[in-house]
Every structure is written in C-alpha cells, then in structure tokens.
Design goal:
three-stranded antiparallel β-sheet; alpha+beta; 120 residues; transmembrane; transmembrane helix; single chain
Length: 120
C-alpha cells in the first residue's frame, strides 16, 4: 500500500497516471460528490456476515455533532453481537435534538427487509 490514509490529498499522490496529483485530487472529489452510497446493500452485507440468525439484539443511538453553524444529527440502528454493536441502518435527522418515537419506530421497521433478504 503506497499510502495508509483515506485523506483525498494523499490518496491522489498514489494514482498511477501521468496527471498531476492536483488533477487526481479533483477526480476523486468529483467521484465522491456524485457517489450515492447504497446503505441497504451495506446493511445486507453486514447482516449476512453475522454468524447467527434472528432474533437479534438491537441498539438504537442518536448522536449530534456541530459542524460550523450547522448540526449533524444521526439516528443509528445497530445489531449487537458478542458485545459489539454493528451499525446497520441510519437516518440523518433534519433537526436538532432527540428523535421522536415515530422516527425510532420507522428506522426499526426498515430493518425488516434487510433481515428478510438475508434469511429467505
């Protein structure tokens, strides 16, 4: 491995091309700006890697970070296996503060299709 980081500026220096690292950096930035992460697919992968089947022990967590003047508020649903919580699904909350019961139920209900696909 040429670089041991995911920092885009350092990653750009490892590209095998005739382009300058600044050009490679812009290519990485454009790719990441347009990339849509398929969180359902990642959740299915994580659930599929777990060695046991449902019922699962679930953990629900909300975290809030300040980024400049804005808030980043994330509600996360995880499957707990041998004392380790594996985040499966998350929702970016469009508000500051705690989630409502309806928001937590909605996130928990969205786990059903992920588990169903793994076990059927």
């Amino acid at each position: 491995c040429k670089v041991q980081t995911v920092g885009f500026d350092k990653l750009a220096t490892a590209f095998k091309s005739g382009a300058m690292s600044e050009s490679s950096l812009r290519r990485i930035q454009r790719f990441m700006a347009d990339y849509k992460l398929n969180t359902d697919l990642i959740a299915q992968l994580i659930v599929g890697l777990l060695p046991h089947k449902p019922p699962f022990r679930l953990a629900l967590d909300r975290t809030n970070w300040k980024f400049g003047a804005g808030n980043i508020n994330i509600l996360t649903l995880a499957i707990v296996y041998q004392g380790v919580a594996f985040p499966i699904l998350y929702r970016m909350m469009p508000k500051f503060g705690n989630s409502s019961t309806e928001e937590r139920i909605s996130l928990a209900q969205s786990l059903h299709p992920v588990v169903w696909k793994r076990n059927h």
